Structure formats: structure tokens, C-alpha cells
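Risk register update: the risk of archive-format incompatibility is retired. Evidence:
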Amino acid sequence: METGGRNAAMGKRTFTVLTCIAILVGIAVVAVTATRKAGSNIIKMATTTSLQDSGLLGTLLPNFEKESGYKVHVIAVGSGKALKHGENGDVDVVFTHDPAAEEKFMKSGFGVNRREVMYNYFVVVGPEEDPASIRADEDAAEAFKKIAAGNYTFVSRGDESGTHVKEKSIWSAAGIAPSGKWYVSTGQGMGAVLTIADEMRGYALTDKATYLAMRDKISLVILCQQSEKLLNRYSVMAVNPQRHSHVNSAGANALIEWLVSPEARKAITNFTKSGEQLFFVERPE
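Archived output:
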């Protein structure tokens, strides 16, 4: 009887322990399932600082989120870093302005569903007094030649962003490899570069949208624009799920399709600063 009682007690304890384990496992499974379900509503997007600094994303994304139920988490960096995030599978979608790098990204199999969304122009800005006398230049390369010839301060992003890549292409067209104290490479975003150039009374290349968004905070003026070399195209791409199976492919493609929808195109066209349109959706000839 005594032995039977002990066995019965042990059996009850074993049953209780197993029951507790089963309950804990069930809770864990529910928690993981809930996390995955919540995560499926998150879209991670790597994009350029220009889209963040200009304020465009703050206008577009709330509308998409309200309509779709997705929540977009933005990582604002230079185009080069944004594309690297895509290559590594750190994000679901990439929205950049470096056509050559984007084509390489696609050909290497890292991206799918690339769509051109809009364009604007880069501009060369500098102090009102314009010591390099570039105000009348229609060719950005000629303007860069004058800046370099006079050793006038030029502030560069120096971060392999789309803006920096464009800047390097203009220096190349001018036949110049910039160096020296007059050439200031910052490794910072567009807003910081404009602030530094303003403080140093120097020149800089910037996307027009960010400049217009900051115009009331700085004294720099636009001195060269509308040059063919200054065309600035923005495209969006989903990260290839065959490369990174964990990415939110459905969310990425939903965002892409919305960005090229009539509603988004209208919002992009109507986005202005001081009454001036910042981005354009019709492809220029």
C-alpha cells in the first residue's frame, strides 16, 4: 500500500510537470505565431536621405499605411548603403536614385520589380556672391572646373550615395580628380552637407528637393541647374525573395505598386515647398 501510494504520487507529479511543459510550449508557439503575424505587416525600406529630408516620405507613407494596413520602417542612408542593405537582405524594398548601381543590383539578382517612380534635378548651390562666377554656366562640368581652378570650397557628401556618385561623374566629365583643402569630403547626409557648405561659404551639389526644404535655414542659392548632367531619377525595387526567403515580398510589392499608382503620382506632383514642385512623374524626353 505504501509503495503504491508513492507511485501514485509520483505519477501525479509527472503528469503535472508534463502538463506545465505542454502549456509553456503552447504559449511559446502562440507567441511566435503572433510575432510572425505582426511582422508580416511590417515593411522595411532602405531609401535615400534626400527623400527623408525633403519631407516627401512623410507625405506619402501615411496614406499608403492607412490604405494597406502595412507599417513602413524607413532606413534613410545614401543610395549605396541602401542598396547594400538590400543585398544583405536587411530590408524588403529599396528606393534610391543611382541608376547605374540599381541596374547592377538587378543584374546580380538581388532585386525584382524595379519601377521608375519620379525624377527631379540636382543643382549646384553656393554663396550669393558666387566667387567662382558659375551663375551663368549651363554645363555643370564647366561650373566644377571654375570651382576647382580657384580652389573655392566645395563640400561633398563623400558617402557613395546617389548624390555623391552623380558628383563624381561630373568631376570626371570635367577631367578633374578633386583633392586639397578646398575639397571637403564629409561622409554625411544631404542636410548636413548643406549646413556645412553654408557655414563655410562653399559650393555643393544637392538634390533640389532637399535644398528647397532647407532654403529657409541656409543662405546658399542655386547657381547651376537644368543641365542634362543634373537629371536625377528615383526608382524602387523589391529585394529578391529567392536570395532572401525571409523578406516581406508581398509587402514590398504592395508598396511598389502603390508608389506608381495614380493616387501616389498625384501626391508626388502636388508635393511642393514654397509653391515650387519638387518631384515630377512624367519621364523627360
